[in-house]
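so the lab meeting is tmrw and i was supposed to have these ready like two days ago... anyway. pasting both below. for each one the top line is the aa sequence and the line under it is the structure tokens. i havent really looked at them closely yet so no promises
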Amino acid sequence: MMQPFEFKPIGIIHSCFKEKFGIPRQSRLIPEAEARLEIVPPYNRAEAFRELVDYSHIWVMFVFHESPRDAWKPTVRPPRLGGNQRVGVFASRSPMRPNPIGLSVVELVKLDLSNNSVTLHLAGIDFLDGTPVLDIKPYLPYVDAVPDAESGYAPDAPGERIELSYSAAAEKALEQLPAMEARHLRQLIQGILQNDPRPAYLDEAKRSQFGMRLYDFNIRWEITGGAFHVTELQSIEEYPAG
């Protein structure tokens, strides 16, 4: 009989995504999606990351820490099939797995070794804030990329250019931010909505308004006739309680 294994996280993710809704379903779909990976003791030793800075991308192995942990199911409903067709769990990237382990390729933007700490700045992420990280490894294009690989029921990347507008109140809120921060937030919102975070099984006739939290902002948006419209953009500090 195989012995069970116990893993200790090497770090924790500080992500722009503060809740699951809005997170892209795969990494690298939204380049503007950023996170910091804080390495925790005793793994935060600079020598453990020697030469990593020479790699542009890394593999991150992590835990789906907020996925329900009831009895596992052998089949799941992938969003790419409209949420109404089942496939085997091992033919999917669903977080609903026997072991809640995820694997993503992300861009390594910066490796910060200052102040006796180790922090990796990442982009193109699909991590929830607070995600525990089990391991990282460098991405090697000559073995990790397979140009002629087949992709089953998900042959192409999702996302199409959308019509996106902002209310006067949302525009005013963006104008109050530093120009670079406002531009980044616009690009991030564009990428998220372009990949349509709504559940595949959603009845559009019953729900057209949505909300999500990015960084320290609460954002509300709606969709009408295929066009997306951001109605509110408020900082968490300004947002009314309840």
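ok protien two:
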Amino acid sequence: MTTHLRESDNYAIEVALGGDIDALEMTMRVYNGALIILPPTPESLALVNWARELVEEAFHPLDPTTAQHELDVDRFVEIAGPLKPRFIHHPKTRELQKAYLKSLGFDANRTYLDVPRMRVVTSDGYLKSGIGLNLPLHRDTWWSAPLQQIQFWGPLFPMSRHSSMDFYPYYHRMPMPNTSEEFNVYKWNTTGRKNAAQHRKGEDKRGIPRPLAAPEHPGAVQIVLPVGGMVLFSANEMHSTTANVTGKTRFSIDFRIVDADNVRDGIGAVNVDDSSQGVALRDFRRISDEADFPPEYIAKYDSGLEEADPEMLVFKPEGVGM
């Protein structure tokens, strides 16, 4: 991993335009705090357009981005709830993810892929909990993400800075008091994740990791991408959902990869302030043949098993709704 040469690099973010950066170099730069912006490609557009097709089909005849103005919250959740797992677990989704990663040069024999997510961020506080959760300030590591995790995120419809994500440069390597010590990913698999659709109004009470105080340095970078564009960032990157005030619902997708060789060798981002239990490596499968993540690699990072249901070490959603 690259050594920081300047003190200022500890609270700064590199923003780099990808497209011609080698996959291994992108990986190392992301571990070191870079945000890599990837322009649209035929492969990324195929994935995004597929997701968009499912969204438009689910909300037909309404425009998905403005449907919140014509539906009550319960009806909106009835539509969006099944939509998300349909995209997540459809075989076509994974095929398109793999094609995109191959086009970027990621090694299929050492790259492991999690299931994707579809995010629904409504405008002006219409739905802020459960499936429409506005994620507070956090690092993915607080949610038991491995330090080798790299996340891809991109919008399904045109967006602006007012419906984006906030990244906090000062906290790249600066700690923040947080509740991650109360989070166990295996307990979350058992209760929190599957109960998302039950949360529709007010604060989400599912034990989500949160900061214990407002940031002392709240300056944020907001990424604006074209449809088909993606931003890559590390599990250690401090970020949150931008408060959507556009009058339109933001639909986006994100997915995560892990390089198994780096997990084996202990190469990754720096753990700044995470105390969560468990590790989400069991959710990743090798893209070449769908093999499970090597258990001997997981054992090096695992914890919290005494509180876990052995059947829920990997999340098993119900009602896929294919």
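from a quick look at the 2nd one: The radius of gyration is 19 Å. DSSP finds seven helices and eleven strands in the chain. will dig more after coffe
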